[in-house]
Design a protein that fits this description.
By secondary structure, this protein is an alpha+beta fold. It folds into 2 domains: 80 residues, Glutaredoxin, CATH 3.40.30.10; 112 residues, Glutathione S-transferase Yfyf (Class Pi), Chain A, domain 2, CATH 1.20.1050.10. Helix content is 53%, strand content 8%. The chain has 9 helices and 4 strands, in the order βαβαββααααααα. α1 runs antiparallel to α7, α4 runs antiparallel to α6 and α7 crosses α8. The longest helix has 24 residues. The chain binds glutathione (GSH). The site of glutathione has 15 residues, from α1, α3 and α5.
């Protein structure tokens, strides 16, 4: 049987999403670390398989997919007999996608390491200036997410079963803590993140539990 390989980096929140999705689906995979600090994402070998020069990339027996949300949706469609990441009901599905995209499209790109590097080299920001930028954009997104989660009493972000919204939420909370976002401002986000951390598929995907963790 053809191999399933996830190219990732332990601290990459986009790769963390895919690890959670694979675990929720119960799909085995080989983990191939790409060291972002050493610039391996820009090596000719990696660019040959992913011209974006970003992780994650999933190679599912020869089917190569970049972009974490595209990977998660592919897994949901290719393996429909495993727990679903997106609900069948159109309105519920749209809510899950809306929460997931608020993180993956609006918050995460602004904290990416290549953006931080550009801020430093082109705009003279130091490490603290860069961290302040990241905290600002995570905070802007979390202010809205907190309001949305406060309106619901469900266990997770969009119901009582984990969905794609949770797959995006927990890695973003990990990043927020890493960059020093004041999480006491977000009791509902913390409530959901605490619940997710108790789910084995999420716990096993944590950066500290990956073979390339330092
Ligand atoms: N939209 C992409 C984002 C991927 C992404 O930005 N990955 C980051 C790590 S979280 C990366 O590879 N950064 C390398 C760099 O900035 O050079 C996805 O969801 O997969």
């Amino acid at each position: 049987m053809a191999e399933r390989v996830l190219y990732g980096y332990f601290r990459s929140s986009a790769a963390y999403r895919v690890r959670i999705a694979l675990n929720l689906k119960g799909l085995d995979y080989r983990y191939q670390p790409i060291n972002l600090l050493k610039g391996e994402q820009q090596s000719p070998e990696y660019l040959a398989i992913n011209p974006h020069g970003l992780v994650p990339l999933l190679d599912d027996g020869g089917v190569r997919i970049a972009q974490s949300l595209a990977i998660c949706e592919y897994l949901d469609e290719a393996y429909p007999d495993t727990p679903r990441l997106l609900p069948a009901d159109p309105a519920a599905r749209a809510r899950v996608r809306s929460l997931a995209l608020a993180i993956a499209a609006d918050i995460h790109p602004l904290q990416n390491s290549r953006v931080g590097k550009y801020l430093q080299t082109e705009y003279g920001k130091d490490e603290e200036g860069k961290a302040g930028w990241i905290r600002h954009w995570i905070g802007t997104g979390f202010d809205a997410l907190e309001t949305l989660l406060a309106e619901s009493s469900s266990r997770y972000a969009a119901g009582d079963e984990p969905t794609l919204a949770d797959v995006c939420l927990l890695p973003q909370v990990f990043s927020a803590r890493r960059f020093g976002v004041e999480m006491a401002r977000y009791p509902n986000i913390v409530r959901v993140a605490d619940a997710l951390e108790r789910v084995p598929a999420f716990a096993d995907a944590h950066p500290s539990r990956q073979p390339d963790a330092v």
